[in-house]
Design brief:
Order of helices and strands: HEEEEEHEHEEEEEE
CATH class: Mainly Beta
CATH architecture: Roll
Strand content: 35-45%
Number of domains: 1
Strand order of the largest sheet: 3-2-6-9-10-5-4
Distance between the termini: 44 Å
Radius of gyration: 17 Å
Length: about 170
Amino acid sequence: MTAPTGLGTSRAAAPDLLRSVFRQHAAGVAVITAPGARPAGFTATSLTSVAAEPPLVSFGISTGASSWPAVSEAGHIGVHILGEHQQELAATFARSGADRFAAPTSWRSGPYGVPVLDGVLAWLVCEVVARVPAGDHRIVLGRVVEGDPAVHPGPAGQSRPLLYHQGRFNALRD
């Protein structure tokens, strides 16, 4: 079957096609954390609100990610919504081989021993209810058990979310 004319140049489905298309999709930026002998965490743009009753969220994680062993074992995980002033924090948790919980990252042990990052716009602690295979990733479903929805503004009282678009972190424009 050929593509209808007038739609531009189409490409066969492949990982690079998916990445190219999703570079056009702006996504909110979150950091997911998991407890353990060494806490683990990573930057995620795949966070999704799944259901309100019961309150469920989901995110994807590669089984090759350095955080996967901790997330695969964790009974609870943390979800942190980042503000536009937290680009460096997002970059730290996205950087391979970084000591993500070393200074200047500010955090504390929260409910169920989950690492909770300070200064984020909002955070949740979720009980892991499923890890669903999805190619080279797992979709993790978490039931919200605690959190802080209060906005913790950044410099100059800003409380706007951090976004990821075109391969870089961005802020909303007025």
